[in-house]
Structure formats: structure tokens, C-alpha cells
Amino acid sequence: MLLEHYELEIFNSKCNPQAMAVHCFAHLREDISQALPYLNAALGGFEYVKDPPSVTFKVSGKLITVHGDKIAVNALKDEAEARKIVEWLKREINDIWERRAEITPSDQAAPRPQLIEILKLLPKTNCKACGEPTCMVFAARATEGVKDSANCPELTPEAKAKLDAYLGRFRFADFEIA
Hints:
The chain is an alpha+beta fold. It has five helices and six strands; from the N terminus they run E-E-H-E-E-E-E-H-H-H-H.
């Protein structure tokens, strides 16, 4: 087992102390730097930094960044959610490390959908039916994997199919965090 112990630090945003969400650091007792390229390859990292090594994932509107000595997670409801996510990630790290012989490590980020390409496929009515103030904001949220064709009631069936086909070319970290 590569990762066994961590200490959880929960904190509020320093730049927005009134924010309802909390953030966390899981300070790792073991150095997991050598596992990061495998984690990136297996889970489809949103961003990979080589020096110092880290991999970032976008999962359900949260940013999760894994460094060799800590894990950072933003936009959490509370400590219980933080523990759930960190424990899930600990299991993933250990499972991927055990299977590393089957995985080709990668230090490249997964390809990302382009905002302008998504915007071209939207009706551009700024109707707000999707819950966003404009189609541009909807497109930005779609690049993050937070929105998709099911969230835009104004799309024609043809436009829906085109948007689904375009977004289907990209891997989004959409894991079952148990």
C-alpha cells in the first residue's frame, strides 16, 4: 500500500471568509509523487504539472489537486464530505499503484473541449432555462464537464446530437465517490 496515513486540515477561504463552502488539505505522511503519472493516466487528469509534480481533476464542480505530499480539495460542504472524497482518492491511489504494471503512465493532461466550439452548437438565446445567465456561461460550464446537452432545453434534437457528439470526444472525471 503506497498511501496509508494523512492528516486532514479544513479551512475557509481567506479571500472570501463569508463563503459557505470549505476547503481541505490532506497532508500525506507518505510521498506519492511516483504514482502521479499513473493516477493521471488512469483517471484522466484535467491538468498535469511536471515540476513540482501534481495532477488536477475536476469532479462534480470541485477541483482536486494531488501533490506528492498533499491533496487539496475546494468547494466542500463540510468535513464529512472532505473525508469522503479523500478516502475515495486514497483507495484510488492505492488501487492504481497496485495495477501500475497494467497502466502506461502519462504526464499529459487530457484534451479539453473548446468553449467557442460548444458555443457554436448552442442556440445563443440567453434564455436562462439551463440555470446559467448566458449561453457563454453555459458553454464555459460545459468545458468543465458540469453542463451538457441535457441541461439546455432550447436545443433542437439535431443540435443536441451534435453537442453530445462533440462533448463525447473528451474524458471528464465523473467518478462515483463512495
